[in-house]
Each structure stands twice: as C-alpha cells, then as structure tokens.
TrEMBL record:
GO terms for molecular function: DNA binding. Residues 1-20 are annotated as: Disordered. It comes from Candidatus Aeolococcus gillhamiae. One of its GO terms (biological process) is regulation of DNA-templated transcription. CDD domains: LuxR_C_like. The lineage of its organism: Bacteria, Bacillati, Candidatus Dormiibacterota, Candidatus Dormibacteria, Candidatus Aeolococcales. The keyword Transmembrane helix does not apply. InterPro entries: Sig_transdc_resp-reg_C-effctor, Tscrpt_reg_LuxR_C, WH-like_DNA-bd_sf. Residues 12-77 form the HTH luxR-type domain. This is Helix-turn-helix transcriptional regulator. The keyword Transcription regulation applies. Keywords: DNA-binding, Transcription, Transcription regulation. PANTHER family: DNA-BINDING TRANSCRIPTIONAL ACTIVATOR DEVR_DOSR.
Length: 84
C-alpha cells in the first residue's frame, strides 16, 4: 500500500513523537520566543548544544527554519508530552 501523501503531493505529517524530551523542551521555549542563548541559560546547557537540538527539531519536523517549526507547532496545536 502506498503512502497517501505521494498521491496528493502533500508532505508527510510532522513526526512529533520522534522528538526527544529535550527537543520538546527546546521547541516549547522557541514557541515562547526565546533565542538559543536564552534557551541555553534556561536549560543550563551551552548555546552550541541548544543549536544542535534545534537542528534536530528542524530535521525531524521536515522544516528549514525555527520560524517554520514554531508556526507548524502552533498550527498543529502541538503540546509537549512533558512540561519544560
């Protein structure tokens, strides 16, 4: 059986379940308008680590920017499984 998205030309749905708990936290803070430096400070990690996690979020959601990721999350009414 083929994937329905192939017939319609629509992209597959976002892989919300594939986000790690930390990636969910990072996306939540991105949705709140925080930048990588603020997220790093909030989570007690480095900016480089947060940037790596942001790249993971973008790749898993199939988007190219933080703005696209947050827009998709809001439009989909996404909520993290665990609170940040």
């Amino acid at each position: 059986m083929s994937d329905p998205s192939e017939k319609t030309g629509n992209p597959p749905p976002p892989a919300w379940d594939s986000l790690s708990s930390r990636e969910q936290q990072v996306l939540t803070w991105m949705m709140a308008g925080l930048g990588a430096d603020e997220i790093a400070e909030t989570l007690g990690t480095t900016v480089a680590t947060v940037r790596t996690q942001i790249r993971g979020v973008l790749a898993k959601l199939g988007v190219h920017s933080q703005r696209e990721a947050t827009s998709l999350a809001f439009r989909s009414r996404w909520a993290p499984k665990q609170r940040p």
